[in-house]
Specification:
The chain has 310 residues and is an alpha/beta fold. It contains nine helices and twelve strands.
Length: 310
């Protein structure tokens, strides 16, 4: 992990994303890019049509936010022998477009941003910026929940299917889980959901023994798939526990993570491009909307954390 982009909006007074990113940078040697985005008012003119007052206001706002980020950077450097290299960026534009552009320009390995807050039910609330980044960002996105501490318990949600594409995605998720473990000292566990598809319908034509055999076969295939994924992954030996949960991942993973006190869930997204990039993946989206802790999303197109950037 070479470079971490930190999206740090002014409303994040507790600097959750900055605190987490700085802790990761100190452990990994990564540099930080602190980013703040100014959004234009629809009533403002731009370019040559801008009035003198509008130009002065733009300059004032950029200067103010630049000073704010400089103060944050100075506080991270102050008295710290292991302080990371820090650069700052203040730009005008749409937040997710600016972040994606900077990720591509700077070859960032990870984006960290704070969640908008917690909903009335206590679940993490993801705003438009987070959802756009989940769908389109060219590197993994870590959205920080209620605090900016390094995680202590990490849950990696993987599909136990033997489908090759899903296996490759599972391996990448385990690599990111191992990278987080190496940087934080966290315990890493795996949760995989399995189902016997059509079991309810088959009750009409199967006797009890036949149905039990059908369900047992589905479980054994999931168990075999999960076991082979772990054995083939370079990160498998670092996993503390594995859990095979019967049912739907979108329903089980959020509750399991909450019940067991995990403070980070790592989940895979579709990672498609073009029009399909607007589809996050139903299972992933429902897991994300159900969790009460920080999340790290990884897509098939993202680099391994062990790859070296440019």
């Amino acid at each position: 992990m070479n470079r971490i982009l930190v999206f740090t909006p002014p409303e994040d007074h507790r600097l959750r994303a900055v605190g987490l990113a700085a802790a990761l940078a100190r452990k990994t040697g990564a540099s930080l890019v602190l980013v703040r985005v100014l959004e234009e008012s629809a009533s403002w003119s731009s370019g040559p049509a801008a009035t003198e007052s509008e130009r002065k206001l733009r300059t004032l706002l950029v200067d103010r936010e630049t000073r704010a980020l400089a103060e944050i950077a100075d506080s991270l450097r102050s008295g710290a022998a292991d302080a990371p290299e820090i650069t700052i960026e203040v730009r005008w534009g749409v937040p997710w477009d600016v972040v994606i552009e900077l990720v591509e320009q700077r070859s960032c390995d990870l984006v960290i941003k704070p969640a908008r807050g917690l909903s009335h039910s206590g679940r993490v609330f993801f705003g438009a910026t987070a959802l756009h980044l989940f769908r389109r960002c060219p590197c993994p996105v870590w959205v920080v929940g209620d605090d900016g501490n390094l995680p202590q318990k990490v849950l990696v949600s993987i599909d136990p299917s033997e489908d090759q594409t899903r296996r490759e995605m599972a391996s990448k998720l385990l690599e990111w889980g191992d990278a987080v473990r190496a940087a934080s000292g966290a315990e890493v566990e795996i949760a995989s959901a399995w189902q016997a598809p059509g079991a309810e319908a088959l009750k009409e034509i199967f006797d009890g023994a036949e149905l039990d055999a059908f369900v047992k076969d589905a479980f054994e295939r999931a168990e075999k798939g999960l076991g082979s994924i772990i054995r083939e992954s370079r990160s498998g030996p670092a996993v503390l526990r594995c859990h095979l949960l019967e049912g739907s991942a979108r329903e089980l993973i959020p509750d399991f993570a909450e019940d067991r006190g995990f403070d980070l869930v790592i989940v895979g997204t579709l990672g498609r491009t073009g029009i399909a990039a607007e589809i996050l993946g139903e299972t992933a989206e429902l897991i994300l909307r159900g969790v009460r802790c920080s999340v790290l999303t990884v897509s098939p197109s993202h680099r391994s954390p062990w790859d070296r950037g440019d």
